[in-house]
Amino acid sequence: MALLAVVRSPPLTFFQTVVSLLLSAVALLSPYWCEGRQKVPKPLCTRTKHTDCIPVPGVSNSASIQFSWETGDDRFIFPSFHSGLWISCEENIYSDEWEEKCRYFMDLTPRSEKGIWWLCVTMELMYVALLSISCVLLLVQLGLRRRLRSSQQWGMLLNAFSAVFTVLGGLLGMVAHMMFMQVFQVTASMGPEDFNPHSYGYSWAFYVAWAAFSVCMSSGVSALNSYTRDTLLRRLKHKAWAYPLQPHPAPFYCPPPPPIPPPPLSPLSPYYIPESPSHLPPSLPSPPPLSCSLSPFYSPSIPSPSLSLPRPAHGYIPQFCEEDSSGPL
After folding, report:
1. Which has the closest alpha carbon to 217: 142, 130, 125?
2. Is 102 helix (H, G, I), strand (E, B) or coil?
3. With contact defined as beta carbons under 8 Å apart, do 123 and 173 qualify?
4. How many CB atoms lie within 10 A of CB 190?
5. 9: number of CA atoms within 13 Å, CB side?
6. 118, 195, 209, 281 - which has most CB atoms within 10 Å?
7. Sheet strand arrangement including 80-83
């Protein structure tokens, strides 16, 4: 954890961004992206060129020589050259003293690749510009962190913008490097006649450019990781203050769901068995009669009225018979 805290620290991120910016600027201005040797015919001997040349009567030391019997690769020389994003320099084959003759790399580029070359240069310049903006933002963040302790939110915002600019610049630089590789290969095979690389490879500036890209992406990821960590910690603290945890006996316990009863069988099913009366549940007992004492109007001192009619003293009960309608009125 201590190592991660050191890696995510803003001073280390600022140092990585500055190193990436310096390496990118050195690689961008250097003419040593590619180097190798050309295969060109030997020039005629002159007053300044007496070695590795074709003898000329009256000029070279052997004045009696009129023909050259050199064949194969002996008729060629292999001067060294090196090229960059802006210029290409090659050894001067017309002088015995070592000197270089330089020209713009755009003049060597075929017409079909000039648009790609311009796009490559534009992306390289944007790469360096975005790294410069990121360095300025990180420097302001370090100043606010040291002078104003309460400006943590602004520091996090500057850190986020610097991370975005750094990662975006690194991606632009990566694409620009690959585009230059393509442009140089096409130029080596389809360039002018006086630029004919026999063997070539990438030089130290090319590797410095890719090292700068690696440091740039490391800085961007570290800055983005630091911003993400600070944002998450701040949200967790705010959530813990706004919604305190309640004690719970089993916070991670989830009771199992109740068992699902099987669906009833259809009468059309061969496994259906009708229920017999013996399987029916017993009838519920009748409720007990309510007591009169439960009535609010009940009084034990007042006798309840009887519903039976009193019998007469003589015991006669009148009988009613149906009269004959056919009798006299």
Report:
1. 130
2. strand
3. yes
4. 12
5. 10
6. 209
7. 100-104, 87-91, 80-83, 34-38, 197-202
CB count, 10 Å around CB of 158?
Answer: 25
Instruction: Give the strand pairing for 80-83 and 87-91.
Output: antiparallel
Amino acid making up residue 303: P
Give the tokens for residue 14.
Answer: 């600022």
Cα distance between residue 20 and residue 135, in whole Å: 10
Global pTM? 0.62
Cα 210 to chain centroid, rounded: 21
Report the alpha-carbon distance of residue 105 to residue 86 in Å, rounded: 5
Question: Is the separation of the CB atoms in 91 and 75 below 8 Å?
Answer: no
pLDDT digits (tens, 9 = 90+) for 242-263: 455 555 555 566 778 888 888 8
Separation CA 11–CA 76 (nearest Å): 56
Residue with token string 């015995």: 96
Return the C-alpha torsion angle 18, 183, 79, 53, nearest 10: -150
